[in-house]
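Sequence dictates fold. Below is an illustrative record:

_____
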Amino acid sequence: MLGVGGSRRTLGREELRGGGRGGRIGGGLDPRAQKRELLRKLQEKRQQREGQEEDTAGEVS
């Protein structure tokens, strides 16, 4: 890429394919882990919402 700046570095096959998750290049969560985390958060929100609805339903009765 032109105009990006910085030193030029050759990348190995593993780095190009996202290996070495702790490194700068290709770091972070893999797509499966991201999806798992998203689903976990959504389920927690849903459970909290259901818990609040049960609390309000109990007060009305």
